[in-house]
Task: structure prediction
Amino acid sequence: MLAEDFTYPVDERAETPHGLNFPQRMHDRKTESKETFDRLAPRYDRHFYGSHGRRQYQRVIAASSAWHFASVLDVGCGTGNLLSLFRGRNITLAGSDLSPGMVAEAVRRLGGDADVRVADSESLPWDAGSFDLVVSTDSFHHYPRPLQALSEMRRVLRRNGHLVLADVWAPFPIRQLGNLAARFGRDGDVRVYSDMELTLMMRETGFEEIKRVANTFSAIVMAAAVHK
Ligand SMILES: C[S@@+](CC[C@H](N)C(=O)[O-])C[C@H]1O[C@@H](n2cnc3c(N)ncnc32)[C@H](O)[C@@H]1O
Result:
């Protein structure tokens, strides 16, 4: 395994992971994500862009079925697809997304069944200890400050709560080439992580029982708990 697999972006690096030559580009990632998904929102559920995320839903549900939970927050919830699969089970549903267009679609889908808000994953608008379960699918690789986002996910979890995080993944060296290409992309992609990087970031932000629960050629699903 190469040294890169053992490194992960500390906050300072994550804010300019494209290096000193590209600080301005990094600054625009959130704007790019917002614009990309605002534009895609009305057709996201039929668009190939959403198909990868849709394939993760059952994996996330399977991973979370091991625990009892009465409340779930989907971070980067998009059009509310995954949340809709938790409906009718007497579970309090909440979601957040940076894109007002995606949130509008989620509100249209979920109506009053869920509390869906426009919010950055790095600053979640809920009190500490609000949820038993936090889930996130195909959103994490858009976050310029992944440690801050994980810290927020941990903060809003109750003691003994759980996180299930699914994201885009690729084996070495495709992942590294993809991350290089992302420097020049315009859709808000920041970085795709190895399981080691995800594990280290989760550990650093206070998660425990960190496990890789699924890993296909293009996706990874990690689970973790909060005990303190
Ligand atoms: C590929 S879509 C996945 C949507 C949904 N989770 C799914 O699986 O269908 C990525 C989502 O992450 C959202 N996103 C990107 N950056 C974000 C951020 N900093 N905070 C919250 N959401 C963000 C985008 O607006 C978009 O809705």
